[in-house]
Sequence to fold (195 residues):
Amino acid sequence: MISIEPVIIVEGRYDKNKIKQIFDTVVLETAGFGIFKDKEKAALIRRLARTRGILVLTDPDHAGFLIRGYLKNIAAEGKVYHAYIPDRLGKEKRKAHPSREGKLGVEGVTEEEIIQAVRRSGVAMDGRQEAREETPVTKADLYALGLSGGPDSKEKRRLLLKKLDLPENMTAGALLEMINILGGAPLLKQVMEEI
Fold:
């Protein structure tokens, strides 16, 4: 098992079961949209973000991004990490039908994809923090490259997200945060040249 300090927040019990087989840390579930009405759990998450930090690991669908945004807002005073699993089409084995968007959730992707997502979040795993390039990308850089604010920015971001194996629903702000976690300006330059 891989040891990490932050508490991992997932959507449901099947996600929690999968994560507990991989990581040695506390894992909490939001009960999907249930978190929006559960003031006690929200207060607990707020406290955990201030003391240990939280790692948000939701499905790459619209619902997952709504829950992720809510958690980011309620825990803004603490340390919040974001792990994004890649978009994979399919359905979980236990389900009769795929999700509305046809994407696999946390429970449906491989352990390696989850480990990679957590590694890319910037969380120290087994006490080791990966060295990162310290040349950050700014909103102005995204604009200059046509990744925000332009008529075809959404399509350019879609291509970049696909190349980085990140979910297509990410906003420009979330993309900026992940680029800086993954490698900053050198990574962005390399990927833009490939596109």
Notes: The first helix runs from residue 13 to 20. Residues 139-194 form one domain. The two ends are 37 Å apart (CA to CA).
